[in-house]
Amino acid sequence: MARIIKLAILVIFLALMILTLWMVVAHADVQWQYEIRGDGAIITGWEGDKPVGDLVIPSNIDEYSVIGIGDEAFKFSTGLTNVIIPGSVAHIGDDAFIFSDLASVTISEGVRSIGKFAFAFTNLTSLTIPASVTSIGELAFSSCEDLIEVIISEGVTSISDGAFLGCTSLTSVIIPESVTWIGVQAFLGCSSLPNVIIPENVTYISVGAFSKCTSLTSVVIPV
């Protein structure tokens, strides 16, 4: 009789373990909204309550590699303060994090393009764009008023129109030698920026690129 009771308890325990595991897996399956593109997944949003605090974008969902973050995926995500984007993500969509409370973002090597308004109106304080990025979309980081430092790694070839427009706290920006073109109003209104070094390979600086940079005292342009 005792053995039967023990066996029954063991069966119940195993059943509860299986149920718990199923619940965890089920939750993992539904927490991301995503679309399948070829062999990869594009994250389009979050199931249920909006994420808050720290968020790590996964490299894989089920059997799919996460290859992109969709347009407006985390738009208006108030409370979201930090995000890590893996190298499997090739493209960050338009308006992906606009109007969120992001103070920090890690863009991993492997990301190739950043869409229009992707991080506009966020609370970023510093930013490093990795060498794998070849395209920064129009107004991608515009009106990030707490942004102080920007490092653009070698590999980016252009800084699009209004990319850093209205970043009023920006005091340091490193533009790599790979950049050949700086767009219209790219740094307009960066009123705290004291100096700029234009790389030798830049062949065109568009109208208003550094307009209203009222603290600008030094601009180095190659001859």
Structure description:
The structure is a single chain. The chain is α/β, with parallel strands linked by helices. It folds into 2 domains: about 1-30; about 35-220, Ribonuclease Inhibitor (Leucine-rich repeat, LRR (right-handed beta-alpha superhelix), Alpha-Beta Horseshoe). It is built from 1 helix and 18 strands. The protein has one helix at about 1-30; strands at about 30-35, 40-45, 55, 60, 65-70, 80-85, 90, 105, 115, 125-130, 135, 150, 160, 170-175, 180, 195, 205, 220. Strands 1, 2, 4, 5, 7, 9 and 11 form a 7-stranded mixed β-sheet that branches. The radius of gyration is 23 Å and the shape is globular.
Outline:
With 223 residues, this protein is α/β, with parallel strands linked by helices. It has one helix spanning 2-30; strands spanning 32-37, 40-46, 53-56, 60-61, 64-69, 80-85, 91-92, 104-107, 113-114, 126-129, 135-136, 149-152, 158-159, 172-174, 181-182, 195-197, 204-205, 218-220. Helix content is 13%, strand content 29%.
